[in-house]
Design a protein that fits this description.
- The structure is a single chain.
- The protein has 96 residues and is mainly α.
- 51% of the residues lie in helices and 0% in strands.
- The chain contains 5 helices and no strands.
- The N and C termini lie far apart (40 Å).
Length: 96
């Protein structure tokens, strides 16, 4: 699934929550937020805190993968997948 907007990720979260037969209040409790936050994210709130969105995905047993698209918009092959761990390691290295 390609997710490019807050609305799309909200729709995905809502779909997965419903598939798991969770109500918004239960998901909110798992994340540590109120039901209103879940409602707003599911509607595509563009300024939702990324950390909480990741917690919502984790609470649903999901993870987020990031892939580079080519100019035409099609997904890049597996060899061109972004290695977030390498990026984090490099960011933690002392400046030279």
């Amino acid at each position: 699934m390609h997710v490019r907007t807050a609305k799309e990720i909200g729709t995905f979260i809502r779909d997965q929550r419903k598939r798991q037969k969770l109500d918004q209040a239960t998901l909110a409790s798992l994340i540590g937020v109120n039901r209103r936050w879940v409602m707003e994210v599911e509607r595509g709130k563009p300024r939702a805190e990324i950390g909480l969105v990741l917690k919502a995905l984790a609470a649903l047993g999901l993870s987020l993968s990031v892939h580079r698209d080519d100019i035409s918009g099609s997904s890049a092959n597996a060899l061109d997948t972004v290695d977030i761990d390498a990026i984090v390691r490099k960011a933690k290295e002392p400046a030279t």
